[in-house]
C-alpha cells in the first residue's frame, strides 16, 4: 500500500469516526440492556413500532457493512 501525504490525516479521521461509532454502539447496547427504557407493564404497539424502526435502520447498516440484503453483490 502506497502512503500519500493525506494518509496520516485519513487515518486520524478514520480513527475518530470509528470512535464515534463505537460510542454509539455502546450506548445502544446499554439501552438494549435496559429494554429500551420500556417497563414490561407499559409496553404497547408504539414500543414495538419504535423497535421495528430501529431494527430497519440497523439492518440497512449491517446490509451495507456485510454486503447483504439490498447491498448484496
Summarize the structure in words.
The protein has 73 residues and is mainly α. It contains 2 helices and no strands. It is elongated. It starts with 6 loop residues before the first helix and ends in a 7-residue tail after the last helix.
In brief, what are we looking at here?
The protein is an all-alpha fold. The chain has helices at 7-33, 45-66.
Order of helices and strands: HH
Unreliable stretches (pLDDT < 50, length at least 5) are none
CA-to-CA gap between the ends? Answer: 25 Å
Overall mean confidence score, pLDDT: 93
Count of DSSP strands: 0
Shape: elongated
Radius of gyration, whole Å: 18 Å
Q: What is the helix tally?
A: 2
Given helix and strand content, the structural type is mainly alpha
Beta-strand content bin = under 5%
Largest sheet, in brief, is: none
Helix percentage: 55-70%
Question: Which features characterize this protein?
Answer:
single chain; 73 residues; 2 helices
Produce the secondary structure layout.
Layout: H1 7-33, H2 45-66
Amino acid at each position: 500500500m502506497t502512503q500519500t501525504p493525506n494518509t496520516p490525516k485519513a487515518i486520524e479521521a478514520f480513527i475518530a469516526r470509528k470512535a464515534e461509532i463505537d460510542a454509539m454502539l455502546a450506548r445502544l447496547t446499554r439501552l438494549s440492556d435496559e429494554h429500551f427504557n420500556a417497563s414490561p407493564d407499559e409496553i404497547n404497539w408504539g414500543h414495538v413500532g419504535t423497535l421495528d424502526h430501529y431494527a430497519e435502520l440497523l439492518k440497512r447498516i449491517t446490509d451495507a457493512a456485510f454486503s447483504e440484503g439490498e447491498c448484496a453483490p
